[in-house]
Structures are given as C-alpha cells and as structure tokens.
Specification:
By secondary structure, the chain is α/β, with parallel strands linked by helices. The protein has 13 helices and 13 strands. A hairpin with a 6-residue loop joins β9 and β10. It is globular and about 55 Å long.
Length: 361
C-alpha cells in the first residue's frame, strides 16, 4: 500500500518551467521573460548590507516595502499586499475566494499559473479564447460571468501573446460586471507597454472597489532570483491573502531589494527604453524571415511559425545552437514560440540560430 494524495493534487498541472540544455558553448536563455540587466547597484548594495541580519526573521508585515509602494503609487499602505512573487498572491487569492461550486474566468492562452487556481480549490475554471489578434475578448469574458463567478483574471499585457488592452477598455469591462466579482488585472509586464503610462491603471482602483492590480519585481526590476510581488486593491483583499498564506513568506533580502528598487524609477525608464529598442530590432528580424508576431507590449515576442513548420523541430534546432526559448505547445498554443528580448548580442544570436533552425526543416 502506498500513500494517497487528494484528487485536487492530481488535477493540478505541472508548471511548464523553462528547460536547460547541456550545451557546451555559450547558452543564450530567452525562455523565462527575465530582464537581461542586473539589479541596480544600490539594490545590490542594500542586499549586501542586509546579509548580516539573516539570523533574524523578516518583517512579517513587510512594512518598509509596503510603505514605499504606497508612496510610489499614491495609495494607502493598508491597500498594499506583498507576496513571494505575484504567483503567491494569485494562489492566496484562490484559497481565500474559491471553493467547489465557485467559478473563475480567464482568457486562454494566458499565464500558466491560472489553471492551478481552480484545480487546487475545486472551483470550476471557465476559459475564453483570445481573439484573432491574440488579445483578450472582453465581451466574451463578460458573457461567461455568472452568480457563481468569484474571480475574473485579465492578464495585461497578456502572457504569452504579449498583447495589451487600453485602460479605458478594462474600465468599461469592470463597470459592466456584478460587484461580487473580483477582477484581478495581472500587470507583470505593464512597465513595458507603450499604449499608455503604466500608472494610468491606478485610476481603476478609485473607480471600482472590486479591482486588484497585480505587479511584480521579477521583470523590469530584475529581481527574479529573490521573488517579490505585490497587489494594490481593497484592504479586505490584503487581509484575506495575508490570512491564508504562510508567515514570513517574503524573505528579508527580497524585502530589502524590492524596497530599494522601487526608489529608482529612472532606472526603470532606462531599462524600458532599451527593451523597446530591442523589441523593434527582434520584430524587424522576424518579419524579414517571414514570421508573423503579435503586437508586443511586453518584453517578449509571440511568434507564429505557420502551418508548414514543426514547432518542436524549430525549438530543438534553436536548442542545439545554444538558444533556449519557450515552445507554444507548453503554453497552450502549439505552432508558436515565445522569445524573450535579451541584449543586442543575445538577440542577434537568436536570429542567427533561428536561420539555422528554420533551414533544418
């Protein structure tokens, strides 16, 4: 007889982590939407200064980080929740709000964590296809909302398709929904969007008491390795997610790094400018090779390979040449590649490797 696990555990999908290969040369990793730039020097200095305090538990309330985020965004500190990456806040929101008989609605393909939320709670997941441009169909999402719906997720910009909606569209969408539905606008990539200033979405908080904005330090701030994310929304939401997640979930170094990073918005602007330049460079290179991409408002491209190309073959061809990207099949849309923007040298290496991989076929 062996130990037994619940049916819910069996239903939870395995998160599609990026693969690594035993490539003997230089490996170019463009699979995880990381920034190619290290943390700001002041962040590294702050982390170095905090190393001597690791014999103490971190602040369970993350007071300094939450205060700086509140000041940065002009919201009360009581409305700022922090977590071990934005994923932890998503998981905590599911624990706090979902149960058998409840529903969660989201577009698909979208962030790979979303299917976990219903599976782990016994709720029903209702998925809505993206439109032909790879963007959210808000009207279709709204039609799926019922009295059982507890959460609607809007990933903006969307991962993996990189498309984004204007704040005005989301505003009208939320206004038409019942007030019992929590709308989580997942803005992990919002700083990279040029549709509008990232802070424009903050007005959704003033207009709608059932909106939460979810953001992360893993992307533009370059803190993937420390895991810090945050949510802006009702105080009741913060209290609920704090109640269900483990104490001390954001470690001391992550709190220190994030609290310092948020003070350097000039560095954020410089990084975004460089990423946008690389976005144009990569998209031009893909167009020259006859490959279609969505209108990216993120730090990655969503590449359609076409019906006559095998995704796995192209993916493997890139890997043999030391370039790791993400295959669309693992993200819910076979026949695509998701390619993160790196440095100019890394992006050129990708394009060169892509020529070889396409030629293999």
């Amino acid at each position: 007889m062996s130990i037994e696990f619940t049916r819910r555990v069996e239903a939870i999908p395995v998160y599609p982590a990026a693969e690594s290969y035993g490539y003997e040369g230089e490996l170019t990793k463009l699979a995880s939407n990381e920034t190619p730039y290290p943390p700001h020097p002041a962040v590294l200095e702050a982390v170095q200064g905090a190393l001597g305090t690791l014999n103490r538990y971190p602040d369970p309330t993350a007071a300094v980080l939450r205060r700086r985020l509140a000041d940065r965004h002009g919201v009360p500190q009581a409305k700022v929740a922090v977590g071990n990456g934005s994923c932890e806040i998503l998981l905590a929101a599911a624990q706090a709000m979902l149960e058998p008989g409840a529903e969660i609605v989201y577009a698909w393909p979208s962030f790979s964590m979303y299917p976990h939320l219903a599976a782990m709670t016994g709720a029903r997941a209702v998925t809505v296809p993206l439109d032909a441009a790879g963007a959210h169909d808000l009207d279709a999402l709204a039609r799926e909302v019922t009295v059982a719906t507890r959460i609607v997720l809007v990933c903006n910009p969307n991962n993996p398709t990189a498309t984004a909606l204007a704040v005005e569209e989301i505003d009208a969408f939320v206004a038409a929904l019942p007030r019992h539905v929590l709308v989580i606008v997942d803005e992990a990539y919002v700083e990279f969007s040029v549709l509008q200033d990232p802070d424009e979405s903050l007005r959704l908080l003033d207009r709608h008491p059932n909106v939460v904005l979810l953001r992360t330090f893993s992307k533009v701030y370059g803190l993937c390795g420390l895991r810090a994310g945050y949510a802006l929304g009702p105080e009741s939401f913060r209290l609920a997610v704090d109640r269900v997640r483990q104490p001390f979930s954001v470690n001391a170094l992550a709190q220190t790094a994030a609290a310092e990073a948020v003070r350097h918005q000039d560095e954020v602007e410089r990084r975004v400018e460089r990423i946008v330049i690389e976005r144009l460079h990569v998209q031009d290179g893909l167009a020259e090779r006859g490959l279609a991409v969505t209108d990216s408002q993120a730090n990655f491209s969503w590449v359609a390979l076409g019906e006559d190309r095998d995704e796995e073959a192209v993916y493997a061809g890139l890997a043999r040449r030391g370039v790791i990207v993400r295959g669309g099949g693992a993200l819910g849309a076979p026949g695509h590649l998701r390619v993160t923007y790196g440095t100019r040298a890394e992006n050129d290496r990708f394009l060169t490797a892509l020529d070889g991989a396409l030629g293999d076929g």
